[in-house]
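For reproducibility, we list the full input for the nicotinamide-adenine-dinucleotide complex.
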Amino acid sequence: MANKEINAEKIIDGKIISSKVLKEVSESIIQIKSNGLEPCLAVVLVGNDPASSVYVRNKKLMCEKVGIKSIDFNLDERISEEELLDIIINLNKDKTTNGILVQFPLPSHIDKQKIINTISPDKDVDGLHPINAGRLMNNVETLVPCTPQGCMIMLRTCLDDLSGKNAVVIGRSNLVGRPMCQLLTNSDCTVTQVHSKTINIEDFISQADILIAAIGIPKFVRAEWLKDRSVIIDVGINRISDKSEGNNKKKLVGDVDFDEAIKKVAAITPVPGGVGLMTVACLMRNTLIATTLQM
Ligand code: NAD
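The corresponding predicted structure, in tokenized form, follows.
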């Protein structure tokens, strides 16, 4: 019992932290609306991928909750790249649309980078446009990708000063790993990025005061690799079969062996109930920022 209580204190609770972010966003939106403006996010979904449909539905529900208008573009998976680009170009021009979210993955006949490059940087709520990535690299204010932005907010709830900390980021995607490294560098951490080709990955992980895991392999990071009293942010979302239920049920786990890691570390994010909630909250935050950029 006592152990459980101690461990509960170590959990970086995405529900509590994302609620605070959402409350701040809602309050700012009330202000903006009192000036006669209505923040609006265009949500573009191509095809019927079930996971994407769930993500899009959650994002739209959250928009409703915080007072952001959302408009849907549910497009046939056979839509041509040119037609999709036209939709984005029109949304760029539309003064009543403040943010554009294109849900990935896209069908293979559409060039994802071309789509990202076409979204106006000021409406790029995913923060993936090369101009926004460049601004992040130059450490100037910009629309920052939602997941790493959420990770930083979580980190700051348990570490007052990030300066000089050894941070290890596992993964190098444009969505998570790369911007994460940049944000940590901008906060004066000493950053090491490791990935699928890294040799002896555990040697790097064992030096980390801060570990960000964004891999996509269930329970990849073992507790014995972790530094004592480190802070762990688990970005991974992996669906595995839940043997304890004795049937075909699936459950979500992260990239870190949470049950063992929590005994060793200072703080850790759970999956579910961690980074995922922050990602949606930061999307709302980015839509607010995009709206103010266009005012
Ligand atoms: P990705 O597939 O684009 O990148 C995965 C990265 O992991 C790659 O850079 C690769 O080098 C690295 N990797 C793969 N195998 C490895 C290995 N054996 N050792 C070390 N590194 C290895 O994925 P992504 O978009 O960056 O997402 C990573 C994970 O985070 C996935 O589980 C994804 O579902 C999850 N995710 C969660 C959220 C959220 O809101 N919580 C948001 C985005 C992604």
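The mean pLDDT is 96. The pocket of nicotinamide-adenine-dinucleotide is lined by residues 147, 170-173, 175-177, 195-196, 198, 201, 214-217, 235-238, 275-276, 279 (CB under 6 Å). Both points were considered when choosing residues for closer inspection.
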